[in-house]
Design a protein that fits this description.
- By secondary structure, the chain is of the alpha/beta class.
- The chain folds into 2 domains: 136 residues, Nucleotidyltransferase, domain 5 (2-Layer Sandwich); 170 residues, ATPase, nucleotide binding domain (Nucleotidyltransferase, domain 5, 2-Layer Sandwich), CATH 3.30.420.40.
- The protein is built from 9 helices and 12 strands.
- A 5-stranded mixed β-sheet has the order 3-2-1-4-7, with helices on both faces. It has a 5-stranded mixed β-sheet with strand order 10-9-8-11-12, sandwiched between helices. Strands 5-6 form a two-stranded antiparallel sheet.
- A hairpin with a 4-residue loop joins strand 1 and strand 2.
- Helix 3 packs across helix 9 and helix 5 crosses helix 7.
- The longest helix has 25 residues.
- The chain is globular, with a radius of gyration of 20 Å.
- The structure holds zinc ion.
- Zinc ion binds next to loops.
Length: 319
Amino acid sequence: MEKLLCGVDLGGTKLSVGLVNTNGRIQDKITVYDHAGKDEIMIADQIIRLIWQLISQNELSESDLRGIGIGFPGHVRYRDGHTLTTSNLKGFKNFPLRQAVADKFHIPVLLDNDANAQAFCEYKFGAGMGYESLIFLTISTGIGAGIILDKKLYRGMTGTAGEFGHTIVNSDNKQICTCGNEGCVMACACGLALPYLFKKKSEQGIKTTLALPADFNYSQVDGKLIMKGLEIGDPLSKAIIQECADYIGITVYNIFQIFNPPLIILGGGLTCWGEIYLTRVRKKFNELARDMIFDKIEIVESVAGCDAGLIGAAALLLE
Ligand SMILES: [Zn+2]
């Protein structure tokens, strides 16, 4: 029997552990939501317990697994298997998560950033199949990315390569990013930026046709509200989508100039804004790249879906 891959997708709200075959199909998975308030040692124990539960309910033994791949929502030092920082969970500062899990098994354990895992999933099984190099950009509450160069994930010196969210696209933007700088694309064009953009555009005099609740405050503005606005033709929502798309277009252009990749995949929650958004991203990119495009570059939407982090973490064992 072909050995299965075990993937762990550790997120801020959801923790999934799954058995995945080498074609990227999930054979079984367990998802829990009660981990978020716990500290790093308790979460490591929970991951270990869930993996054993999965092994047992599938009547397998540890030796039926090729290894365990863990995707983490924050910075990791890849070679040591340490987590460095995260804004989605408590603790995890310089925590040896890979070793903590590996101590309880006799199979290889890998730890990587969750956007790297998602990028690898797209490369192996999704929109990146058949490509040797690609950049994957995920745009939801924050912005993350994974870089595949010549069939390999590029991780940089520490393991934190691909933090395009903190590249600066507008130094005049006064919205402070989670990193403390002004003008990062993460402060301009993802979920974190939407309350600021809604307020800014309202103050500029753009009226919304959205029916807002009586107790409305700007912190309630998220991708779903703007999507609702898009559906009813709300001019304020449209203006926000255009501004976000323009900054992502600038980011895609910067990525193009650095890597010259044949493919850039956009994933994450805000891509639900659909064709109007993607078209605007491509338009901004083309305006900037003009006659500097010598070979075809594709800017496409992710196809891997909400299990990309889980499948990708497992697939890292095939790298
Ligand atoms: Zn930043």
